[in-house]
Amino acid sequence: MSAPETKGTGLKWVGRAIRRLEDPALVRGQGHFTADLSATHWVRFVRSADAAGKIVNIGKPGGKMVITAADLTGVKKITPMLHKFSYRPIGQPILADGVVRFVGEAVAAVVAPSEEEAEDIADLVEIEIDATAPLTDARDALKTGAPQIHAEAPGNIILEGKVKTPGFDAVWDGAAKTIMLDARSHRQNATPMEARAGHAVYDAASGRVTLNCTTQMPHLMRTAIADVLGMPESDLRVIAPDVGGGFGQKMSLCAEYVVLVWLARKLKSSVAWTEDRRENLIASFHSRDQYITLEAAFDKDAKLLALRADVVSNIGAYSCFPTTSGVEPLMAMAEMPGPYDVQQYQCLARGVITNTCTMAAYRGVSRPVITFTLERLMDKAALAFGIDPVDIRRRNLIDKFPYKSAMGLEYDEATYKETLEMAVKAIDVPAFRARQKAARAKGQYLGIGFATFSERTGYGSPAFAARGMEITPGWETVHLTIDPSGFVEARIGSSPHGQGLRTTLAQIIADEIGVTPDIIKVIHGDTDTSPYGWGTFASRSLVISGGATLIAARKIRAKLIKIASHLLEAAPEDIVLEAGSAKVAGTDRSITIAKMAREAYTQTHKFKGEIEPGMTESGTYDPPGTFSNACHVAIVEVDTETGHVRMEKFLVAEDAGKIINPMIADGQVHGGIAQGIGNALLEEIIYDDNGGILTANLADYMPPTAREIPEIELHHIETPSTQSITKAKGLGEGGCIGAPAAIINAINDALTPFGVGIDEIPATPQRIRAALREVEKAARKTA
Amino acid sequence: MKPAPFIRHVPKTLDEALKVLAEVAPEDGRILAGGQSLVPIMAFRLAKPAHLVDINEVEGLDRLHSDGKTLSIGARVRHGAFHKNVVDNPLGKLLTFVGHHIAHYPIRMRGTFCGSLAHADPSSEWCLVSATLDATMIAKSARGERTIKATDYFQGIMSTALAEDELLAEVRLPLLAADAKFGFNEFSRRAGDFAMSASLVTYTVKNGKIADAHVGVGGAEPSPRRIAEAETALNGQTPGDAAFRAAAEAAASAIEPLEDHQTTGEYRRDLVRAVVRRALENSQS
Amino acid sequence: MSEKTDITLTINGNDHAIKVEPRRTLVDAIREDCGQTGTHIGCEHGICGACTVIVDGEPVRSCLMFAVQAAGKKIRTVEGLATDDTLHPMQQAFMDHHGLQCGFCTPGFLMLAVGVLEREPNISDDDLLDVLSSNLCRCTGYQGIIKAVRAAAIEMRGK
After folding, report:
1. Residues of chain A with pLDDT > 70: what percent?
2. CATH class held by domain A286-461+624-782
3. pTM score of the predicted model
4. Closest residue of chain A to C137, computed from CA coordinates
5. Are residues C71 and C9 in the same domain?
6. A706: chain B residues, CB-CB within 8 Å
7. β-strand A106-112 against A41-47: which pairing, if any?
8. How far apart are the C-alpha atoms of C133 and A706, rounded to whole Å?
9. Is the CB of C23 less than 8 angstroms away from the CB of B104?
């Protein structure tokens, strides 16, 4: 094995594309994933095949263990809470209790010695449901007289966000031109390659249960499960071992995990459940099912004056914990104005309950949808004004910072215009236009699409409090230790699962305390061994956990300098930490960090009570939040005969502040774009009229393969964030946010000669052909 | 997603296989060859066969042989066998070309030609090949052997003329004329997915005119078949855009399209029009 | 339940004598009965490729084979790629080119790429892209995987 680039001296670690510390185990198949654990008992959930109705009877096979709601006495419902926006709390029973509200809702849990047998028994459980007509579409659920899915939520509205800036009407009425767009985003599933899994084991000696599960938020899962089961939190340990991707789907509390902990306590044994792919597609969390009507008012020079939005977000059958089902509609409302300078804004954002799988966060949350809507509208406006899509953005992008949005959000220093210009130059627009023209003459339809956007990242508890959330998952804590052997451990409350945070945090620590990343272990994901914290989601971990790490590392640094100053008998300001040693500047006097650490534990008398024993420091960080930004450019070819869209090229100019590890940063963008391509072209959860899911396998629900992803070219600007002590901004979601917009704009650009508008994602070949066929029919008629 | 229990039988000879199949067929016994279509539907428990007759160890069924007139493909011949040219005839090149469109590499290592035909998915590339080239199916059972013409064999979505106790032991494909041209095109949304429509064409050119045109369409109707209207539009015409477009239009009109929640009949006709024309345009010898 | 049969699976040269039902898939047997959990399960219906292993020199989906069918065959899994401290060039290339993030699909991609390149060392870049479209990855956008496999292909050809 060649030496990892995690050794060396005299170099700064931050900013370097070092190999990941996570990788050696993972490429050897030595990762620890939840489903790798074996158990005495295996659970299979029996799920409703009906979308709505009363449970008349549950027929259980004799002699088998089948748990239903009736067995779960004293177990509370999952009832997330929001204290704003007319939110109506609705409860989700751990197993369906009397009624079912979506296809896939767990009605019973079968326990057996193997997964196969559990499934055999589950096949014998007969659930009799007096089925009623389901509501799967949010607009249908809003209709007067629609059946009410939860008694607590009249009209099937769970929350309603409203905003209107003073003076809106006057500005609107004075506009030179208004442009409207009816946008539709169909439903998606985040589809991590590892579906959910849980493993709960009871320890007789302590009376504790250890739950391994595929979560992005181990500490909060512990709090939430203890709450629901009414047990002391100290009796529960939650471990998120290696987690095979989450993308938001693994943020929320799963009723299934509650059942596992309940069973482990009841059976005083080990109990496991591994979700299969079908369950994941029908019963894990969904997202992005929205209708947005967006109108924009412009002055005569195509300067945006005001935006008016109506957001209808299908939140499914229940509200997710902890974010609540406000996560999509409220995000849409808060960030709709995007990167544009517009001070007049009106929005109505509603969360609508339907008989579908519960909605939860998925990478980007609402922003892929609102960015697609706003960016498509800007292109429509450019066409109406007869100007270039790039030009309308130049006229409207924010260029003075800090900027306060119409919603009161503070945008820190960003480079909206600079990234646009960088992208325009790199893609060579004039050359493309020439190629496009030549291709059209041959019946080939190429298109280019731009998306400019901001990505709110690394926001702390005030941002969540502003939403009225009962749980404000904002801050992070890091406990940093140099152990007596001189090796470094960072115990973090965050819970990475593929983002390479062990590596990037090690880079931050290494620079601060003068050691190499290879001697740093980042420990996370275990409530027994890591400090309370929130987890990895919302493009936050590098900013917030990274900030906490830097704070702790600075304290360690200060302590090391103090110790060195004592031991080397030099002034603190003369001490330099580098290459694993403290040196007195300008002399050959030095002492290794390892020796100082050892003495901090074993020779404390030397410090005469002036220095605390040990070498552990804690850092906590709760920042206000910062905005990354990017310009995405897609070049596509639309096959007008089949409706197929071929991605030819994707280019990104991104500013995510200070980049800690360029390789990891690029990987995040690449992955986000691939999901955005799936979002734009391929992926759609489809319900039939009975509320059944037609896309319950990976042939029908289509994450892209390597063939569907084009070459992705990345360019970076690094504007240090003033709102983040590491100067880094988050970038986990950006790829996903901009890609659908750029692709849809490119498709529409390609189809300009036909005069059709594609305002729906995914832009499937069927939808594109349907639009073209209308044009062809009309042309035949006039001919 | 674990299959329901079954009893596995592992015959070593064809006679043994046919005997056990005859015994278990009435109790929902089925053949297991490559398993690349059967095992997924068992995982979803859409199929719960009580018995599987695993023919992977049956001697002789891996035979792939040409007698100069036909290519015989035994029940154990896997898709991957066609990664290389198996016969010195345009048919060999055709099979390699089409075979690369079947699912993905690891699936081709296991899945079998005859298994695809027995499964009879409307989109199957090998079913399209067999229908277009007028293959002959050799069905064997303890009762004896019979040959089935492609036109009689395919009976709808995942439905064939095979009786429950019959094994599709062999498929015979006629070799093509030495100067035959072939073209293939299929449309799927992602690489390797089942085609939403596909077309295979073969023809020869005699005195500058198309002769003996075979135009097969798959994935668009419950079973793949030759489209006589498209063939008529080609035979006797000069190969080129006008003839190809006329044939594509004829095929698009002739089909009775499969429809589903996303895919209308009109869209399926659009696809057929495109794949037939592209198969013709891309035809090679 | 149906009757269990005794079989021996040879994984990375080690014999595992196990007792399985005929319906036990190869991937379940590798993981549950033989304890080799490096091979992962992503879909159990042959689409995602997370469970790809090499059986008698051929990369296959181990969710679409029954364990009993693999008795007597040579099975190779991710655990067998490295020799002691030396990573296989493919593993090294995945680390060097950021071919993995969460690592869940990685064993399947490694076995797919190694399996195909051992059979077809001179495969073209375009055909290799077709091969890589066999498996799904949700993290990397495939950019790092494609780079890694192309780099490893060059390395493997050189040996």
Report:
1. 99
2. alpha beta
3. 0.97
4. A193
5. yes
6. 191
7. antiparallel
8. 5
9. no
Closest C-alpha to C38, from C89, C7, C82 = C82
Residues of C in contact with A670 (CB under 8 A): 140-144
**pLDDT computed for residue B285 by the predictor:** 79
CATH classification (class only), A23-31+475-621: alpha beta
Domain residues for the domain of B198 are 181-281
Expressed in angstroms, the distance from the first to the final Cα of chain C is 48
H-run or E-run covering B17: helix B14-24
Smallest Cβ–Cβ distance between C46 and the set B6, B40, B100 belongs to B40
Do B117 and B31 reside in the same domain of the chain?
A: no
Any chain B CB within 8 A of the CB of C28?
yes
Same domain, B48 and B76: no
Amino acid A287: pLDDT: 98
Interface test with B, best of C6, C23, C142 (most B CBs within 10 A): C23
Q: Is omega for the bond preceding A24 within 30 degrees of 0, making it cis? A: no
Same domain, C52 and C105: no
Question: Looking at the complex, does the CB of residue A644 fall below 8 Å from at least one CB of chain B?
Answer: yes
User: How do beta strands B136-141 and B181-187 pair?
Assistant: unpaired
pLDDT digits (tens, 9 = 90+) for A315-364: 999 999 999 999 999 999 999 999 999 999 999 999 999 999 999 999 99
Chain segment A634-686, per-residue pLDDT in tens: 999 999 999 999 999 999 999 999 999 999 999 999 999 999 999 999 999 99
CA-nearest residue of chain A to C142?
A706
CATH architecture, domain defined by A194-283: 2-Layer Sandwich (3.30)
Our CA-based measurement puts residue A505 at a distance from the nearest CA of chain C, in whole angstroms, of 16
CA of C73 to nearest chain B CA: how many angstroms apart?
13
What pLDDT is stored for residue C91 in this prediction? 98
Write out the H or E segment, with its range, that includes residue A332.
Answer: helix A327-335
CATH number at residue B255: 3.30.390.50
In sequence order, the β-bridge partners of residue A287 are A188
Return the structure tokens found at A317. Answer: 């059958």
By CB atoms closer than 10 A (0-12, 13-18, 19+), residue A508 is: buried
Q: Are strands A581-584 and A590-592 parallel, antiparallel or unpaired?
A: antiparallel
**Taking residues C53-60, what's their average pLDDT?**
98
Report pLDDT for A277: 98
Residues C103 and C152 in one domain: yes
Nearest C-alpha in A relative to B41: A697
Calculate mean pLDDT across residues A533-545: 94
- Domain range holding C23? 5-80
Question: Are A324 and A88 contacting, i.e. CB atoms less than 8 angstroms apart?
Answer: no
How confident is the model over C1-25, as a mean pLDDT?
96
Closest approach of chain B CAs to the CA of A139, in angstroms?
Answer: 20
Helix, coil or strand: residue A307:
strand
Residue B1 lies in a domain: no
Q: What is the pLDDT of chain A when averaged over all its residues?
A: 96
Query: Is the pLDDT assigned to residue A271 strictly greater than 90?
Result: yes
**Among candidate residues B129, B159, B174, the one where a domain is terminated:** B174
Strands A712-717 and A645-655: parallel
What is the CATH number that goes with domain A41-132?
3.90.1170.50
Q: Does pLDDT of C153 surpass 70?
A: yes
List chains adjacent to chain A, taking adjacency as at least 3 C-beta pairs closer than 8 Å: B, C
**Cβ–Cβ below 8 Å for B105 and C116:** yes
Nearest CB neighbour to B190, from listed A120, A641, A702: A702
- pLDDT tens for A369-382 read 999 999 999 999 99
Do B122 and B213 reside in the same domain of the chain? Answer: no
Residue A6: pLDDT over 70? no
- DSSP track, A748-769: HHHTGGGT----EES--HHHHH
Look at residue A569 in the predicted model and tell me its pLDDT. 94
**Confidence check: pLDDT of A8 > 50:** no
pLDDT in tens, B67-120: 999 999 999 999 999 999 999 999 999 999 999 999 999 999 999 999 999 999
